[in-house]
Amino acid sequence: MDFIAVVWSDKTTPDRADRARKAWALYQSENGVEAENRIEDLISDLLHLAEVDEHPGGAEGVAARASRNYEAETGTWPEGWAEAEPTGRFVAQMRQAGGVWSTVGDGDDRRTVAGFLWKAMQIAGFRFSELAAHSEDLMQGRVLTSNDGFEFRVIPRDEL
Predict the structure, then answer these.
(1) Three-class SS of residue 58?
(2) Taking a C-beta distance cutoff of 8 angstroms, is the pair 143, 152 a contact?
(3) Helices 39-52 and 58-73: angle between axes, nearest 10 degrees
(4) pTM
C-alpha cells in the first residue's frame, strides 16, 4: 500500500507536521502553555469545530477521514492491516491501473463504505463537488476510474 503516499505526494511526515506547527503554536499562545494543554486538546477542539460548523459527517466523520488520511500519508499501513480480514458486509477497494485490488475499509452501510474512498478519489483527481454523486455510483456497484487509471469500487464482502 506504500504506493498511496509515494505516488500521490512527495511530502514527508516532518513536512506535514510543519504545516500544522503554526496552528499548534497559536493554540498554545491563546490557551496557555501548561501541562493540560496537550495536542489532543487541540484535536478535540477541532472536532467540536467540525460539529459547530457542520462539516460533512460532523466530528465523527472528520475524525474518521483524518485517521484514514494519516494512515495513507505515513507511507505504510498500520501493523496487521494487510492481514486484517474485512468483517463488514461491504468492502471499499482501490487499485492502480492493472494492479491488485486493495481494501481501504469495510462496513455494513454502503454509503459509509463508499465514503472511505473520498480522500483517495480527490487525490486521484475527482472533484469534491462530485463525490456525493460518485458515491451513488459506487453504491450501485460501478467501478470508477480516474484520468490516471486509478480504480475505485464498493463490493459485497462475499465477492472478494
Answers:
(1) helix
(2) yes
(3) 130
(4) 0.51
Q: Give the position of cell 494543554.
A: 37
Q: Name the DSSP letter for residue 50.
A: H
Residue that the C-alpha cell 459527517 belongs to:
57
All three cell numbers of 98, joined, read 492493472
Task: Report the interhelical angle of 39-52 vs 13-31 (nearest 10°).
Answer: 80
CA 67 – CA 111 distance, rounded (Å): 18
Residue 152 near residue 120 (C-beta atoms within 8 A): yes
Residue 60 or 154, more confident:
154
Q: Which residue has the cell 497559536?
A: 26
Comparison of pLDDT for 156 and 24, the residue scoring more? 156
Tens digit of each residue's pLDDT (9 = 90 or more) over 91-129: 999 998 778 888 888 899 999 999 999 988 988 889 888
Q: What is the pLDDT of residues 79-91, one digit of tens each?
A: 444 445 778 899 9
Query: Residue 97 — φ and ψ, nearest 5°?
Result: -55, 120
Taking CA atoms, 20 is separated from 13, 15, 27, 58, in Å, by 11, 9, 11, 21
